[in-house]
Design goal:
Number of strands: 0
Largest sheet: none
Number of domains: 2
Order of helices and strands: HHH
Number of helices: 3
Helix content: 55-70%
Structural class: mainly alpha
Distance between the termini: 59 Å
Oligomer: single chain
Length: 84
Amino acid sequence: MPTPTMNTKFIDELNARIVSFLQQTPVAEVGQNLKVLLASSLSKLDLVSREEFDVQTQVLARTREKLASLEARMAELERPAAPD
C-alpha cells in the first residue's frame, strides 16, 4: 500500500536535477509539471516508509530469536531422558 508521506526531499532533489537539465533543452516548459508527475508516479508504487521498514526489521529479528529459542527447547524435549 503506498504511503501518504513520501520522501519529499528525494522528490525535490530529483525534480531539481531534471528541471535543471530540461532548462537547457527546448522542452523547458515540461519542468513546471514534472514534480507533480514524479510524485504521482512514485505514489503508485508499492513502497513503504523507512520507519515502517525499520519496525518490520525489528519484528523479524525478534521473531527469529523466538524461533531459535523454541527450536532449542523442542530439541531438548525430544531428547531421550537419561536412565536413572
